[in-house]
Amino acid sequence: MSIDIRPRSIWAPYAATTTTGGLLIARKAWADFHGDYEKATKELIDEVGASPGRSSREWSPWKGGVFIHHRGGGSAGLDTEEECAKDVADAWSDMYGKADEDIGYNYFVCPHGKIYEGRGLERGEANGGDAPAQGNVPAGHVWVADHGAVGRNTAFYSICGLLRSEDESTSAMRTSIRNLIEYLRTDVPAGKKAGPNMFPHSKGYATECPGNLLPYAKTGSLMDPGVPDTSNPAQLQIISRAQWGARPPRSEAKVPLSQRTAFAVHYSAGPTSQTPRAIQNYHMDSNGWWDIGYNFLVDAHGRIFEGRGWANEGAHASGYNTTHFGVCFIGRDGDATTAAKNSIRSLYHAAREKTGKALAATYHGALNSTQCPGAALRAWVQNGLPGTTYPIVGGEPVYEGDPPGDGSSGGLTTVRSIASQQRAVNGLGHSPPLTVDGVFGPLTDAGVRWLQNKVGAQADGLWGPLTEAAYVAYTGQGGSGGGLSTIRSIASQQHAVNALGYSPPLDVDGDFGPRTDAGVRWLQGRIGVEADGLWGTTTEAAYVAHTGGSPGHMGGGLTTVRSVGSQQHAVNGLGHTPPLDVDGVFGPLTDAGVRWLQSKVGTEADGLWGPATEVAYGRYADGERLVVDGQFGPGTIAATQRAIGVTADGAWGPESKRALQQHLNTWADAGLIVDGDVGQATVKALQGHLNKMIRADLTVDGDWGTATTKALQTALNQGRL
Questions:
Q1: Which strands make up the sheet holding 197-200, listed edge to edge?
Q2: CA angle in degrees (0–180, nearest 5) for 676-680-684
Q3: CATH top-level class of 5-216
Q4: pLDDT tens track for 243-302
Q5: Which of 115, 117, 287, 437 is buried deepest, with most CB atoms within 10 A?
Q6: Domain spanning 238-383: CATH superfamily
Q7: What is the pLDDT of residue 430?
Q8: Residue 236 pLDDT > 50, yes or no?
Q9: For residue 707, what is the DSSP state?
Q10: CB neighbours of 334 closer than 8 A, spacing ≥ 6?
């Protein structure tokens, strides 16, 4: 359906007049523009008005739907559309420090029926991720049919009406909310479609929100457009790794399409509720592989998930990983639905189209000695994969980013943001100039490749450290255009150079000019690394070793994924004691806090918040959040039941015990008799599995005591059972 959504650029100018905007402008003016408030204001407006940035945390709104909100107490008094845009900017200011330094809501709808973009189709953070646990529903979750407990922010859009508790909703507002929900359920990419549920913010959360929208904020109300028929889709879209919350791969191994000869069907042999991330965790943590083993996965609803993608070697059938695409159905024998089979068939035909050859259709058991994919799928493959073929879009072979509907890649943002890449391309004279909108589409991809050719780097469209170094060498620029700031900000590098006694001291102004370049090279020579002026991981490691990480020499951190302030917020949000001061300064307390968080979420505790830490944090924050107390009570039991695919009722009965044994047989190759008797053999298998998955260091003695339960709770919190 056609719908008019006003972009962020409409309300972004008013962000500069808010309290948060004023603070950010002052900080930018002195850190980046030598006190020029006009330039700082323009940059803030450009940043706020750019297209919403992607979250690295799981985003699966098809499991949930939408939450409805209002703006709080009092009366809004919004008589003009300008006042409405200002109110959206005020919401940005209010939520900036609590919502990953952005606005928390996905969309706003004003009394005049105008729709304003917030986070848009990207994950928001406004639905009460800190909601308390209720019964068998963990903290930050809500119960829905079909999927059970799902994350309030992980699985739901947030739509905020621009009214307050003393205001009545208008017919124009309600109609536009209805139209917006219909749009989110029907006209967006498959992985971002809204599910069938509509809840008020107050569901499971102590708030009066959404005020006078409450009577309409429920499934089946006049504001609910109904659930569309999806039995005959026009096309299928691959859900990217970014959308399902994949961990970064440890490596990759490219395979040319010309080498492919066949297409192999698998099953996971687990419950249909299993997630791609759970399968990836097992493959990486237990098997020690560099990524999830399959090229693609398909669930019972027919949704297609990107695994290693079209261009990478799989790890799904010994001896056939470079010749065969591996596609896994998530479920057990007999669980595959018509929708799932149609999606697998469609992937097969897409593979034939990509390779330009007639690929053999086969199954795992025909290649290796295994029952996979079960009798039902085996017979289906042998009969020629009968069903309906749909066109497929998305899923290009790029790990970083979120492929849009046209199939173009997502770009790489670990060194420079997309907007910064666009500015750099324009700065070298690309014609026509790129629109600096933060969106990595085909034109930006072509522009980055053009720049890479110009500066002498590999033209792959991915702006990594080598492209950055080549660009810096070509332009001779620093500061906002030069140096390397993926590990430390320019100002932090200047602090570090001065701390080692450089004379005369550098001005700590965040500008990477000739003097800062010379100072960094001096420091590199002193600590024994190549003096190239680029502060990368080798320089950082040598600097920390040289200084011993003493408080006088701290101040670095890694800010390519989250700012220091956002890291401090995250550390405090997980209960660090005492709480960190959220001051944006990476000192010894923040370093210790980040390391504490990394240990808690199950990643390397190096104090550097990179992509692996971000994914692990998202997994933990959106997960069970059990108290690790060694008590196998209803909460821990319900979490275990969710992980092994049975009804999460908090009662540890025979069905749950059999499911645990089946789970250990599938994922730990335990060879247990599935009889519901959790004796020593089952406990030993569990202990061994926990040792592999989370390095629990348990004694494998068959005694299910406090230590085993604590390890189980930790694994459940990290999504690694």
A1: 5-6, 115-117, 107-109, 156-161, 65-69, 197-200
A2: 105
A3: alpha beta
A4: 787 887 877 788 999 999 999 999 999 889 888 988 998 999 888 898 999 999 999 989
A5: 117
A6: Peptidoglycan recognition protein-like (3.40.80.10)
A7: 86
A8: yes
A9: H
A10: 374, 375, 376
Residues in the chain: 721
Cis peptide before 189 (omega within 30 of 0): no
Question: Residue 360's beta-bridge partner residues?
Answer: 262
User: Which ranges in the chain are annotated with CATH 3.40.80.10?
Assistant: 5-216, 238-383
Give pTM, 2 decimals.
0.72
Over 50: is that where the pLDDT of 208 sits? yes
Angle between helix axes 8-15 and 81-95 (nearest 10 degrees) is: 70
Q: And the tokens for 248?
A: 């970064």
Q: In whole angstroms, what is the distance from residue 170 CA to residue 586 CA?
A: 47
Contact assessment for residue 378 and residue 364, using Cβ atoms and an 8 Å cutoff: no
Instruction: Write out the E strands in 18-80.
Output: 65-69
Q: State how far the Cα of 658 lies from the Cα of 656, in Å rounded to an integer.
A: 5
Q: Is the dihedral of CA 192, 197, 200, 204 positive or negative?
A: negative
Burial class (CB in 10 A: 0-12, 13-18, 19+), 572: middle
Residue in the structure block whose two tokens are 């609803």? 301
- Distance (Å) of CA 148 to CA 462, 639, 645, 716: 39, 11, 11, 16
Alpha-carbon distance values, 516 to 27, 252, 285, 307, 470 (Å): 21, 36, 42, 43, 18
Residue recorded with tokens 């008019």? 4
Q: ∠ CA(339), CA(341), CA(343), 5° rounding?
A: 70
- Distance CA(37)–CA(281), nearest Å, equals 47
Q: Is the pLDDT of residue 574 over 90?
A: no
Which range among 32-46, 437-451, 477-491, 505-519 shows the weakest confidence by mean pLDDT? 477-491
Which helix (H) or strand (E) element contains residue 512?
A: none
The model's confidence at residue 484, banded by pLDDT at 50, 70 and 90, is low
Residue 211 contacts residue 70 (beta carbons within 8 Å)? yes
**Whether residue 595 has pLDDT greater than 80:** yes
Which stretches within 577-679 are classed as H helix? 588-601, 611-621, 634-644, 654-668
Euclidean distance between CA atoms 651 and 340, whole angstroms: 32
> Do residues 12 and 90 touch, judged by C-beta distance below 8 A?
no
What pLDDT score was predicted for residue 36? 85
**Cα angle value 691/695/696 (rounded, 5°):** 65
Comparing CA positions, the residue from 633, 644, 643 lying closest to residue 674 is 644
Please, what is the average pLDDT of the chain?
Answer: 85
Backbone φ and ψ for 67, nearest 5 degrees, come out as -105, 140
Cα 129-136-269 angle, rounded to 5 deg: 95
Tell me the residue ranges of DSSP E strands in 379-493. 392-393
Mean pLDDT lowest among 92-96, 129-133, 361-365: 129-133
Q: Are 282 and 293 in contact (CB under 8 A)?
A: no
CB 200 within 8 A of CB 213: yes
Sign of CA dihedral 419, 308, 257, 313: positive
Contact indicator for 255, 353 with CB cutoff of 8 Å? no
Query: Kindly report the CA angle at 30 between 26 and 49, in degrees rounded to 5?
Result: 50
Collect all residues with Cβ–Cβ distance below 8 Å to 43 and sequence separation of at least 6.
Answer: 28, 32, 33
Q: Which of 628, 620, 605, 606 is nearest to 570 (CA)?
A: 620
Q: What token pair was written down for 153?
A: 């922010």
Per-residue pLDDT at 408 exceeds 60: no
CB 143 within 8 A of CB 137: yes
What would the pLDDT profile of 89-109 be if each residue is shown by its tens digit? 999 999 987 878 899 999 999
DSSP string, 682-696: HHHHHHHHHHHHH--
| Sign of the Cα pseudo-torsion (614, 619, 622, 624, in order) | negative
d(CA 391, CA 347): 9
